[in-house]
Write a structure and sequence with these properties.
By secondary structure, this protein is mostly helical. 66% of the residues lie in helices and 4% in strands. It contains five helices and two strands. It has a two-stranded parallel sheet.
């Protein structure tokens, strides 16, 4: 729900005459170089929870996650475009760079999920063998990833 809140709202109720039918879009894929760092990080961080949470809902392969990452960004930008057309004003910029940054965020979230799943698998397999992994977790994590 926060994704919708941050990407679509606030919807302007009163639009000035000079903004009517003026759609704002950017189809230059290298345009994000001019952006400030906050916008880049915000677009990436916005989509990390989707990449982390989707594998909890259903089993997802890397190929499907790549497709879901692209579709997530396209859905957000498409919703902004449709809403701008419905209210007949370009209050949000439809930007291809946002799609790319959202895709990166989804992949980062999926990578965090895979790391988290590997750690949990390692802990649960060690508990089955009767080891004392809970007391030696920092050492075992260091040994696993070094």
């Amino acid at each position: 729900m926060n994704v919708i809140r941050y990407t679509l709202f606030p919807v302007p109720l009163f639009v000035r005459e000079d903004n009517l039918f003026r759609l704002s879009y950017d189809l230059n894929p290298t345009g994000f170089i001019r952006w400030d760092d906050a916008q880049i990080y915000n677009n990436i961080l916005l989509s990390v929870p989707f990449g982390f949470g989707l594998p909890f809902l259903r089993k997802v392969s890397l190929k499907r996650m790549l497709l879901a990452g692209v579709m997530f960004g396209v859905a957000i930008e498409g919703a902004q475009l449709v809403l701008s057309l419905l209210i007949r004003a370009g209050y949000r910029t439809v930007d291809v760079n946002d799609v790319m940054l959202n895709f990166i965020g989804v992949l980062l979230g999926y990578g965090c999920y895979r790391l988290f799943a590997a750690i949990v698998r390692r802990i649960s397999s060690s508990k089955k063998r009767g080891s004392r992994l809970c007391w030696t977790l920092p050492f075992n994590l260091y040994k696993t990833f070094s």
